[in-house]
Write a structure and sequence with these properties.
Layout lengths: L10 E7 L4 E6 L2 E6 L2 H5 L6 H15 L8 E5 L3
Parallel strand pairs: 1-4
Antiparallel strand pairs: 1-2, 2-3
């Protein structure tokens, strides 16, 4: 039987990215939305997981200082 670790998060981060239109994030009542530049959507090698990771990275840059020492549950759909 495997080991399961459960925790109750202090905060939750929700992020999403579409391959052709935009990316967004929501965290503790704050949010952002951005649109991909044409060069991002034309390069098929950079699509997929890297496009899903970008809003997570941006959320860490934007909200890292206010989330320090917190347990964060991240919600991301990688389809």
């Amino acid at each position: 039987m495997g080991l399961a670790i459960y925790f109750i998060p202090d905060l939750q981060l929700f992020v999403d990215a579409s391959e052709s239109l935009s990316y967004e994030g929501f965290f503790d009542g704050l949010w952002f939305i951005g649109h991909w530049l044409p060069e991002h959507t034309l390069n098929k090698k950079k699509r997929g997981i890297s496009m899903e990771l970008f809003p997570i990275y941006l959320a860490c840059v934007l909200w890292g200082p206010i989330s320090s020492q917190k347990r964060i549950l991240m919600w991301c759909d990688n389809q």
